[in-house]
Every structure is written in C-alpha cells, then in structure tokens.
Design brief:
Layout: E1 10-14, H1 19-28, E2 33-38, H2 63-68, E3 73-76, H3 82-93, E4 97-100, H4 104-110, H5 114-120, E5 125-130, H6 145-151, H7 154-158, H8 173-191, H9 193-196, E6 201-205, H10 206-215, H11 217-226, E7 243-248, E8 251-256, H12 260-269, H13 284-289, H14 291-302, H15 307-316, E9 322-323, H16 327-331, H17 334-338, E10 342-347, E11 351-356, H18 380-386, H19 391-396
Parallel strand pairs: 1-2, 1-4, 2-3, 4-5, 5-6
Antiparallel strand pairs: 7-8, 8-9, 10-11
Length: 400
C-alpha cells in the first residue's frame, strides 16, 4: 500500500495558519490528495509568520508554513469574487472533503456556509475547525488559538503558581488539538457517508477539544456536578508525590514515583537512603502532604548527577523518571531519529530542510512528508488545466 492509507481521498483545503492546514496535512501525509486553495499574491497568512532563514521575511521560506503543508498542492483563487467561487465549485465537484477554518459570518458573506455548499455538493464532508464552533453565543466572535485555550479553563487549572495569575499557554496548542480531533472525526464522516446517505459538516470547536483533553471530565464535569475540581499547584501534584520537575547537574528531570514499586525503585537508584524508609513516606498521599520535606532531599541527589545518569539509573530500577529535554536535544535525539521522527526534504527556495515525520506509525502503509510544502500557486496549471479551465485568462483577470 505504498500510495498511503488514505489514497483515493481528495481534499480541498480552504484555511489559513494552523488548525485547518494541520488537519489537511494529516490527510496529505497519509496519502490523500490535498489541494490547498490560497489567496492570490499573499497566500496563506502562515507564509508571513516565519520563522525565516536569517530572519528575512519571504513568502516561500516560512518554517511554520513549510511544516504545515507538506505533501500538498497549492492553487491560488480569489474566493471573494464570483468568478473565484465558480472555480472553487469546480474543485469541490470532484472532492470528498473540504477543510476550512474561517469564522461562520465570513463564510456566509461569501456564500460558502455549509447550507450553501451542501445544496450543490451533497456528498461532500465539510470539516469546520474554529475557536468556538458553529453554534452557541460565541460562534461568531472573533477568536484565535489562545482565546479558545483560555475559554476551556485549562490555563486556570494548570498554568502558573496557585497564588499568582494564570500563565499563557504555548501558542497553537488549541489549534493543533482541534485539528487532530477534526482529522479523526472528519475521516470517520468520510467513511460514514454510506451510512447516512450523504456528506455532513464536522463542527469542531478548538476550545471544546482542549476542554475535553486538557481539563477533562474530572474538572469541568466535577464542577458541573458538585462544584469540586482540581486547582493548579505550580509545582508537582496535589494528591501524590514525588511528581515534579527538579534541577540536576545539567538541566532538569521529571521525577515521578507515586506507586509503591516506583518509590522503592527510586530509593534503590538513590542508594537506599535511610529517610526513604520512614513510615510516613510509604504512601503517596502522605508524601504529598510532606512534599516540602521530600523534594529538597531528592534534589540533593539529583544535583550530583546528569539527567541521563538519573534517567538511566531510575529506568533500570523500574521508576519512570525522565530527563527534561530541551528543544535542541529533542531534535537531535536518537530515539526520535530511529522512529523516523525527522525527515529531510528538498525545497526550491529553502534547499535541504529537516521537518517532523509522521506523528502516527502505520507499518503496512507508512505516511509522513514525502514532498515539500508547495510554492504559492505552484499547481495552478496542473489542477486547473485538468478541469479544462483557461489558466492564462484566470490569471490575467485576478481570479487566481
């Protein structure tokens, strides 16, 4: 199955930045044909975000754009014009899926809302990935990734010290979670068309994807049921110890030893210090109550060793202590390399560039980036020519 697990599925992507492009990338990296529709001249806004080599902006050299758009074809089309929407209609005629991440009011203005699209293309699966979803009081609000993340309660639950303001989350977490959710259930909708007799809209709210996975039922569900939920601790866990990040000789380690066997393993790795055998430390809950006493004692040991020495010693004793790798260390890590986590591709503007490989392993039909992100409008002639359209005329009047 060298063509990929999703070979034969045709996807039109009408999206910008992260959520829709990453959703479409997951289809493309596993064999689907993905045609990315970009605005003429400027293209996807991600092309302007970078990072850029030598910090020099260039629409064809954005690192964010490159990562999000491997294995795709790029065509340009001004969908704001009537002529452009006619061209898009012809693209949708032969498609299985449309992936988009525009806010509902914008699509209605263009006549590209789901009701309008389904009237012409009833078998099409439309995957809509937005901060707040297609319905509800916030559906038409202007919003982005961080708006969605903070609406979920996740930042108040996890980010920051308990007696200080919550912290911002890393950019695009909600978009990536929303995109992965959208790809999963969008694919289910494709294979479910025979069951329902037509296509349907997959309505994904990035805020809800974060609420379900980051914050979870024990927090939002618990608060809704009886007003009980966990609160951020800043360092470690409130109900068990040790479970925290501690400094070591060359960085930091994540120390986790909640179960009895894990605690015993940590003790062996540390040379069985007498204090670890005290009765009060034989239960993770009582250890949590005395974390202020325990963590400095463990840190005395970690500060004498490197993170790899600590991780290797603890793993050998059955304790899941892990080195906290920097981004650079992760990019060069042998485990990631051996699993195909990084691949090299040749790009016309960037030259040889490494990017992340397939996030999911399918041994019988491997996926992942095989062709680089396309240049803006690189496939206009190929795609529009196959539809019998006059590429020269469409270019001259600004439609593409």
């Amino acid at each position: 199955m060298s063509d990929g697990a999703l070979a034969g599925i045709r996807v039109i992507e009408l999206g910008e930045m992260v959520s829709a492009p990453y959703c479409a990338k997951l289809f493309a990296d596993y064999g689907a044909e993905v045609i990315k529709v970009e605005p003429p001249t400027r293209g996807d806004r991600a092309r302007s975000w970078g990072p850029f080599p030598n910090d020099t902006p260039d629409l064809e050299k954005s690192g964010l754009y490159f990562f999000l758009n491997t294995n795709k074809k790029s065509v340009t089309c001004d969908v704001r014009s009537a002529a452009g929407r006619e061209v898009l209609d012809q693209l949708l005629d032969g498609a299985d899926v449309l992936i988009e991440n525009y806010l509902p009011p914008h699509l209605r203005e263009l006549g590209l809302d789901y009701a309008s699209i389904a009237a012409k293309h009833p078998d099409l699966v439309v995957i809509s990935v937005t901060p707040f979803g297609q319905t509800g009081p916030y559906a038409e609000w202007n919003g982005h990734d961080l708006n969605a993340f903070h609406l979920s309660g996740a930042s108040n639950r996890y980010c920051g010290r308990p007696d200080e303001a919550p912290l911002e989350q890393g950019t695009f977490a909600a978009d990536f979670y929303g995109a992965t959710t959208a790809a999963t259930w969008g694919l289910a909708a494709v294979y479910g068309r025979d069951l329902v007799g037509c296509g349907q809209q997959v309505d994904v709210s990035c805020a809800e994807a974060i609420a379900a996975t980051f914050t979870g039922g024990q927090n939002i569900g618990g608060a809704a049921q009886d007003g009980r939920f966990d609160k951020r601790t800043g360092v470690g866990m409130s109900l068990g110890a040790p479970a925290t990040i501690l400094p070591c000789k060359d960085g930091h380690v994540w120390v986790l030893a909640l179960e009895a066997a894990q605690w015993d393993g940590l003790a062996r790795a540390m040379g069985n210090p007498d204090w670890m055998s005290v009765d009060i430390f034989q239960n993770m809950l009582s250890r949590a109550e005395n974390r202020d006493m325990i963590y400095p004692l463990i840190e005395e040991w970690t500060s004498q060793h490197t993170k790899m020495e600590i991780m290797d010693a603890c793993q050998a004793e059955g304790c899941p202590v892990t080195a906290v790798f920097t981004v650079q260390e992760a990019a060069e890590h042998q485990h990631i390399k051996d699993r195909g986590g990084l691949v090299s591709l040749e790009h016309e503007a960037l030259g040889s560039i490494r990017t992340l490989g397939a996030p999911f392993q399918l041994p019988e039909c491997p996926g992942g980036p095989a062709t680089p992100a396309p240049l803006l409008g690189q496939h206009n002639t190929e795609v529009y020519g196959a539809l019998g359209l006059d590429v020269g005329a469409l270019t001259a009047d600004g439609t593409i």
